[in-house]
Amino acid sequence: MKDNKKTITRKGFIKTASAVAAVAAVSTVFKPSLRAFAKGSKPNSPAESGVWKSTTCQGCTSWCSVQVYVVDGRAIKVRGNPNSKVNLGNCCSRCHLSLQQVYDPDRTKVPMKRTNPKKGRNEDPKFVPITWDEALNTIADKIMDLRKNNETHKYMLMRGRYSYMRDILYDRMTKIIGSPNNISHSAICAEAEKFGPYFTEGEWSYRQYDVLNARYILLWGADPLSANRQVSYYLSAWGDALDRANVAVVDPRFSASAAKAGEWMPIKPGQDGALAVAMAHIILTKGLWYKDFVGDFTDGVNKFVVGQTVSEEDFTEKHTNGLVKWWNLELKDKTAQWAAERTGLPVEQIINVATDYGTAAPHAICWVGGGPAMQVRGGYTAMAAHALNGLVGSVDNVGGTLKGNKEYTQSFPAPDDFIDDTAKAGKKHKKIDHRGTKGFPVLSKGKPGGGVVTNNAAEGILNEDPNEIKVAIAYMNNFAFSCPQSERWERALSKIPFLVHLTTNASEFTHFCDIVLPSVHHMFEKWGYVKSMGNTYRHVTLLEPVIDPVWDVRIDETEIPWLIAEKLQERGFSNLLDHYKEYKDPETGKAPTNAAEFALYSLKHATHKLWDPAVYQGGDKFSGWAEFAKVGVWNSDPYPFKKRWGNMKTKTKKFEFYSETLKAALTAHADKHETTVDDILETCKYQARGEKAFIPHYEEPYMWGDEKEYPFVHVDYKSRLNREGRSANCPWYQEFKDLDPGDVAYDDVAKLNPIDADKLGIKDGDSIRLVSKTGKLECHAKLWEGVRPGTVAKCYGQGHWAYGRVASKEYGKTPLGGNNNDIIPADYDRLSGATAFYGVTRVKVVKV
Amino acid sequence: MKFPEQENQKKSEKKISRRNLIKAGGAGAAVLAGAQTASAKQSPSKSKRLAMVIDLQRCTGCGGCILSCKSENNVQSGIAWSNKKSRTVGKYPNVRFEYIPTLCNQCENAPCVKGCPTKAMHKGYGNITMHAPKKCIGCRTCLAMCPYGVISMHTRKPHAYWKSEDALIKGCTASPKELVEKVKGNVIPNYNDAREKSTPGSGLRYKGIVEKCTLCDHRVTKGLLPHCVMSCPADARVMGDLNDPNSAASKLLSKYRPWRLKEHLGTEPKVFYVREFNPGATKKTKGSV
């Protein structure tokens, strides 16, 4: 093209216009904006002097494929990667903040060592710089001590955000050292959200939504124009989706998505289940269920009448299981009136939304976000709301809710041959987070104890239950900030004798560490890959080192474990390094000989089937690694709609309104503890007994604090500028915090409805304290009409007392604003292990 | 870089301003008609009147335009060339959130240009309201004249944050200045030299002058769209030549009734807004008395 630009003149054009090649040139070169060049002057300095290099943004879990504009090894600006079919060349506003993360002067530039042996919130760690060699030697010595003393189970690995290179450090290293204690952050993410689709349609995962073909979009505690997931795709599609679909938003707070919706349903926190079952009731009584998916009465007459049971024989189901059982056990009395009393929503609105949603079948999405799910009894609410997709046949359907497309990445070599007897003995110990105990069924993928109870690991460490933790390594996490009742983590981390943090910034977690290893910024300095879905596609996108690393940093998930493995080998324990040497370069067959080679070869191995034409499986095709690395992203084949109808991964292979899958899982857990399912549910704070345990149903909210003493319910939400709690040290974050509706720039505000504020004598900008049963925080008041009376909405993200000079008021001492996790109690949806963030905290508001 | 259009531009500009002075005060429909008549009278090949149409239905209020502008144009903290106005309207539970992306309106009758005693503010390629830092004497007349508040003054050296020599943890983290030197930036670490190359003095600006959005003239004159337009994930920003009835912008202005900020002042902004930020459906009603 450049050559064309140089030589093409108007005369030249006319001459060559007949040639096919020239036609292509015309369409590009003859754009109005380029006419200036065609006319003459000096056309030909390249329009942009730098290079757009592909990588991945992990600012949120959208995991957009992006590109960084690089000049002389320096990042200038960012954009979405036009090669992705998921985010289609788009990135959202938070992606731009990444520039201020990678070039944050407060990043740790060298390994650090604590010189103050006392640990605690009020103890200055007195960090001093040390060499990589000293840091790694110290770590290796501590691990060898555990191995010598047969205490390898006292080693712990904590994982926060990750790429899919995670298993090298999280799984393989922990296993080969010999510990059961690799603890991920997953349960402070949204495990309860996955509970709904798993126990109805057999998919333990997040979903993607075909919004462009939808006629109704019901956003339930989800705010996709602001946070999680595929934000950039939904930003790009929303304006067009609005042309075709009605959008309703269920949220006590007027969210960014509510600002672009037709209907706002400011529900009472924790009452989502009531609305869900009432909607199901209305859809059934009005005969609006989708018969091609659900089936129909044998005589075609609707017998779903308020208060009346239905005979199972009268209804023939198609691709679903247990509709009549669900009606008889739960739905028959759940009228709009009944729901209105609980939800605080008008009867008419409930009926209208349910009717419009049902009428839009099967192109009607019920989009269940973290809001209704991440509550103490939220697993069942996630089921109830997700079941609406089953009723209207939008599951796996055009304009509906979809799973991820097939992708062809592969796992790393198995570690079994390198797990010695010491490690085997260590691995047999119980895990520190108590998963699988009677009170924590954590039925991830239907398996009792199958998931993690992240926030409960603090209790395990504090109570040395099942054992003490002596050596711990953590990466890209900040549990002392991101976990509710974070003060517990401050004490737990202070108790660990040797704690290592792999991090970019000295965060709240770092404050309690003995050794700090400066890590790469994932988007600019790291090799890795992640997979995500949207726009009816899945992509696998590469994290690549696109700039000259700012400091002497290492890759957390690959280089650092390799370097530790080398040090362990020097000390006579070579199993880990021997294992890592099995990660060979698929192109050359060569084993890695150093950390940098290991980082690259392991990635090439994991993505081998995506880029090597010799082992091609599907989706985008590449000529080899070099092309894949340049393009930066692999796209799946198009979505196979309705392929799972009648072939779901549930016990019955159908969409389960009566979940045989959940019955099997709960029964297995009860059997393991030699008790009944009812006993398990009672232990785990649920209200259901008997058969209700296996169907989507309403449970009353479980909140901490007496209503008289704590009259308000706290509503937590996430900022569109949050890079998962890691962006508050970016000046742009503070400057544009008011991009979140209701929020204020350079401030952290709790939003009160003016009706409530008047009663309390609180005015805009007043300093206030939110006090819950388990903690308190201070921030400013904002009087706002976008919040339900009786609730206090406050965004998560501010309240850092460490991380850097912009994020904190006084680094290491005073927070800027307040951290929501200081008032949220540590509690759980125990069936999924998920931490409760919503509908769990009662607060009082005090003027200070 | 000088383009032949620029000469023609000046002539047509005068025409437009006379016309519009007579027409000033027109409502939305009149404005649209005006814009169309003007474009019909001028040959598209002779001049360009670059405009931006912002489709509020597509806009999601994400702020991508604002932040991407910061990186493209080395804009310091506290100043935003690309910005927004937002507010929450109504009484619970009947609430609306209003959001309007803002930027220099590229007025045809630009008060800042008229008021500038040194011609630092002037009309450039595509009728963009340009600023020549070397001519600016910092008198702030433009600031006073602009009814939109999109011009900012540097009363101090910009980017003070990045000149600090203090580190958070001694020996373990860097001072802002040290970081900029380490990555070979220029005052700021992610410094973009594209502006400076195009108009000397416009790269970082300096104490004693004003600055504002110039529609990414350094890109537009090279045939590239402004960076905010490229960065908008929703394609809510549509650029085009008003003199070309077939430009995407002109087509949108024909299809939807546009509105502009402070229409009554007769500044004739070339930033147009179409459709509604929230087009949500409503239930039929006749209301009540």
Describe this structure in words.
The complex is a heterodimer of chains A (848) and B (289). By secondary structure, chain A is of the alpha/beta class. Chain A folds into 4 domains: 2-39, no CATH class; 112-189 and 408-635, Rossmann fold (3-Layer(aba) Sandwich); 193-404 and 650-694, Dimethylsulfoxide Reductase, domain 2; 712-847, Barwin-like endoglucanases, CATH 2.40.40. Chain A has 30 helices and 33 strands. The model of chain A is unreliable at 1-45 (pLDDT under 50). Chain B is 29% helix and 15% strand. The radius of gyration of chain B is 21 Å and the shape is globular. Residues 1-45 of chain B have low confidence and may be disordered. The chains are: A alpha/beta (848), B alpha+beta (289).
Write the layout of secondary structure elements.
The complex is a heterodimer of chains A (848) and B (289).
Chain A: H1 2-7, H2 10-16, H3 20-29, H4 35-39, E1 51-57, E2 64-71, E3 74-80, H5 93-102, E4 112-114, E5 127-129, H6 132-148, E6 155-159, H7 167-177, E7 182-183, H8 191-201, E8 208-209, E9 216-220, H9 231-244, E10 246-250, E11 263-265, H10 272-285, H11 291-294, E12 295-297, E13 315-317, E14 320-321, H12 323-331, H13 336-343, H14 347-359, E15 364-368, H15 370-373, H16 378-391, E16 401-402, H17 421-427, H18 457-462, E17 471-475, H19 479-482, H20 487-495, E18 498-503, E19 515-518, H21 522-525, E20 526-534, E21 537-545, H22 559-570, H23 575-580, H24 595-606, H25 608-611, H26 625-631, E22 633-635, E23 655-656, H27 660-672, H28 677-683, E24 712-718, H29 731-735, E25 749-752, H30 754-760, E26 767-772, E27 776-783, E28 791-796, E29 808-810, E30 814-815, E31 828-829, E32 834-835, E33 842-847
Parallel strand pairs in A: 6-7, 6-17, 9-10, 9-15, 10-11, 14-23, 17-18, 18-19, 24-28, 25-27
Antiparallel strand pairs in A: 1-2, 2-3, 4-5, 4-19, 8-16, 12-13, 20-21, 21-22, 24-33, 25-28, 26-27, 26-33, 29-30, 31-32
Chain B: H1 4-23, H2 28-41, E1 50-55, H3 64-73, E2 83-91, E3 94-102, H4 111-115, E4 121-123, E5 129-131, H5 141-145, E6 152-153, H6 176-182, H7 194-198, E7 210-211, H8 217-220, H9 227-231, E8 237-241, H10 248-255, E9 271-274
Parallel strand pairs in B: 1-9
Antiparallel strand pairs in B: 1-8, 2-3, 4-5, 6-7
